[in-house]
TrEMBL record:
Summary of subunit composition and partner proteins: Homodimer.
Protein name per UniProt: alanine transaminase
Annotated gene: GPT
GO terms for MF: L-alanine:2-oxoglutarate aminotransferase activity; pyridoxal phosphate binding
Cleavable signal peptide: 1-20
Domain of life (superkingdom): Eukaryota
Length: 508
């Protein structure tokens, strides 16, 4: 009898449904066949908003397109090339680097202990396998280990660190085995991040940076504090830039940590001893937690360059620093001469951590039960390799030396060849496994890229992929100074394919 009231009630019910949908409440609706279905509980509007801010350029849009192109090639689609060359990631074995024989022998024995009864393996490999298996539950690498890692492996890591650092003591209780270095880095960031608004944790990271850092900080809701490496000085770190970055950050957040990648990814620089001293003194003065990503510590090629661990320098500066500066350092089986990315082996060592916080760290790592046990076994072999007099020592040293020598040769080749291409300049690749050359793009390409809503170096790299089959990562995925453009190449051995491609696309 009151149409206006009926209309009002219908509108109210409709608005209520919209409100419920916006709150993420599931709604029932009838399909064409008369069956009721419900809206998704998890939608793009109801999911964790920090995840949507995560970006990881190393496996980003260009890589996804590369995968599609590979599929098209298999289906017979004609392209100007016959294969996709993936230079987007430091996956050494995927690009042909051969595994170290001793490592694979011991891992085979650990995975299938019946092989211990065969005569095809050297005795030192068998002894290592037996020792590792004896430390595993039920004598099997398929069993869980302690959350912090197998005890004897952590002891071997501690002895390795002591040898590397000239006798600086290392407590195995401060060593945590991890699922690659990435796991340890993210775990430490989880401990560091807290606060809201102006008190929110800020973490200083180098630009260019490895996108793990920006992605993890975005997911954790922390503030990314950029400090820029000096491209004109071979990507060196300037103390004045650290001071500028910190002062600016303190206006809007609470900077608590400083991350350093040495040797550098993506920039390939090796920081000097003086630089590391300056960074430690800076961290001590400003009360910053240091995070040293040292996964490329064996990859040093340039004459006059040397790897200095942050821990060694810290202790050589004396008790004023070694007793106070908080440090977490990271290593991995994925790089150096090993290249064993798939096993996900790694470790971190913590120095001067508050005992109550370290107890929380132990609790946090227990949530993921344990790192992969085969990865732990591999880490043990890296830090406890064959010694002189053992049957495998000669072959091991020959393979290790050959791999590192080849990487050094490729690093030099990278610099030489890229610098022959008009519009491309490349700093010397002092270490690690990447080059990060600067590319000078024509204004036409820059305008076209911006019209498409793309970063100019993303536009360039996509063109390179579509026309030559070479998959690189644009510098914009790592961060760079405004107005500059770069790309990262992860496999210098493929430069013979690059040279023609770069000339073709120079004036695109």
């Amino acid at each position: 009898s009151k149409p206006w009231l009926t209309f009002f009630c219908c509108q109210l019910i409709a608005l209520s449904g919209v409100s419920e949908r916006r709150r993420g409440l599931a709604q029932e609706k009838m399909t064409e066949n008369g069956v009721f279905s419900r809206d998704k509980v998890l939608t793009i509007d109801t999911m964790n908003p920090t995840v949507k801010n995560v970006e990881y350029a190393v496996r980003g849009p260009i890589v996804q397109r590369a995968i599609q192109i590979e599929k098209e090639l298999r289906e017979g689609v004609k392209k100007p090339f016959t294969e996709v060359i993936k230079a987007n990631i430091g996956d050494a074995h995927a690009m042909g680097q051969q595994p170290i024989t001793f490592f694979r022998q011991v891992l085979a024995l650990c995975s299938y202990p019946e092989l211990l009864n065969e005569n095809m393996f050297p005795e030192d490999a068998k002894n290592r396998a037996r020792r590792i298996l004896q430390a595993c539950g039920g004598g099997s690498v398929g069993a869980y280990s302690a959350s912090q890692g197998i005890d004897c492996v952590r002891q071997d890591v501690a002895r390795y660190i002591e040898r590397r650092d000239g006798g600086v003591p290392c407590d195995p209780d401060n060593v945590y085995l991890t699922t690659g270095a990435s796991d340890g880095i993210v775990t430490m960031l989880k401990l560091l991040v807290c606060g809201e608004g102006a008190s929110r944790t800020g973490v200083m990271i180098s630009i260019p940076q490895y996108p793990l850092y920006s992605a993890a900080l975005a997911e954790l809701g922390a503030v990314q504090v950029n400090y820029y490496l000096n491209e004109e000085k071979c990507w060196s770190m300037d103390l004045s830039e650290l001071e500028r970055s910190l002062a600016e950050a303190r206006k809007h957040c609470n900077p608590k940590a400083l991350c350093i990648i040495n040797p550098g990814n993506p920039t390939g620089q090796v920081q000097s001893r003086q630089c590391i001293e300056d960074v430690i003194r800076f961290a001590a003065k400003e009360r910053l937690f240091l995070m040293a990503d040292e996964v490329y510590q064996d990859n040093v090629y340039a004459e006059g360059c040397q790897f200095h661990s942050f821990k060694k320098v810290l202790f050589e500066l004396g008790p004023e620093y070694s007793d106070n500066v908080e440090l977490a350092s990271f290593h991995s089986t994925s790089k150096c001469y090993m290249g064993e990315c798939g096993f996900r082996g790694g470790y971190m060592e913590v120095i001067n951590m508050d005992p109550e916080v370290q107890a929380q760290l132990s609790k946090l790592v227990s949530v993921r039960l344990c790192p992969p046990v085969p990865g732990q076994a591999l880490m043990d072999l890296v830090v406890n390799s064959p010694q002189p007099g053992e049957p495998s020592h000669t072959t091991f040293m020959k393979e290790r030396t050959a791999t590192l020598s080849l990487l050094a040769e490729k690093a030099k080749l990278t610099e030489q060849i890229l610098n022959t291409v008009p519009g491309i300049t490349c700093n010397p690749v002092q270490g690690a496994m990447y080059s990060f050359p600067n590319i000078s793009l024509p204004e036409k390409s820059i305008k076209e890229a911006k019209a498409l809503g793309q970063a100019p170096d993303m536009f360039y790299c996509m063109k390179l992929l579509e026309e030559t089959g070479i998959c690189l990562v644009p510098g914009s995925g790592f961060g760079q100074k405004d107005g500059t453009y770069h790309f990262r190449s992860g496999h210098p051995s493929l430069l013979k394919h690059f040279i023609t491609a770069f000339h073709i696309l120079r004036w695109v």
